[in-house]
Specification:
With about 90 residues, this protein is mainly alpha-helical. About 40% of the residues lie in helices and about 0% in strands. Helix 2 packs across helix 3.
Length: about 90
């Protein structure tokens, strides 16, 4: 099984397009299954940072790809949390 670690949003467009092509789908095929226009899918492939989590999950399902979250080897068990000026974790 191949793994494709994604560490930045900029990596998503190429991966999504690659998975689509590997599956033998055109943008029109995937757009129809996703319930959007081909132009919307094209935009999503170019700028995946703007896609909602729900739409991304549906797209991955259409492409036959699963999302797996895991800690990189050698990292601490405590996740980093964004900190505000008040010192409280913020999501």
């Amino acid at each position: 099984m191949d793994e494709f670690p994604v560490r930045t949003p900029e990596q998503l467009p190429g991966l999504l397009q690659g998975f689509r092509k590997q599956a033998g789908f055109t943008q029109a095929d995937v757009a129809s299954r996703l319930g959007v226009t081909q132009q919307t899918l094209s935009s999503l492939e170019r700028n995946a940072t703007a896609v909602s989590a729900a739409r991304l999950m549906k797209l991955l399902s259409i492409l036959g790809v699963e999302l797996v979250l895991r800690r990189p080897s050698g990292t601490s068990s405590q996740p980093e949390q964004p900190v505000t000026d008040a010192g409280k974790a913020q999501w």
